[in-house]
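hiii, so i know i said id send this last week but things got crazy w the move. better late than never?? heres the sequnce for the chain we talked about at the cafe, plus the structure i predicted for it. fair warning i was half asleep when i ran it
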Amino acid sequence: MIKIVVTGANGMVGAAVVKNLYKDYVLVAIDRHKDRIAPFIEIANGLQFVMSDILSVSDWKAILGGAYAVVHLAANVHWTPRTSEEIANFYKVNTEGTRLLINKSAEYGVKKFLFLAPMMCIEAVITRSTKVSRLMLPAYMRKPSWKQRT
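okay and structure toks below
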């Protein structure tokens, strides 16, 4: 069976992805919480749950080794950081965490990477050094004026 890794698996979108894929794929679900997907963890034979944020994963090989795809949904969203500490955490999770996951996915030979995130996260990740080419982005995001559309 095909192995898919889902980050942010307990979020609103992540839980829906897990619920729709757990019967047909080997899933590795990563999140800091599991209340929304706990019923599927109990009944799914091919579902491995890793309780962690993506910045704290200790064994990337176990998670990404043999994975065909990553569905990256982990992010700080639905709130606006107001303090310098919140801004630093927002950046760390949304940017550094995503960059780490992209690079680890490339390192372990993951074929497909689906990244669903606010535009500000995408901008921060692609404008810094990663193994992802800007050519993999939609054409409107490669143009210098794309920032004006966010």
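btw The first helix runs from residue 12 to 21. thought thatd interest u
miss u guys!!
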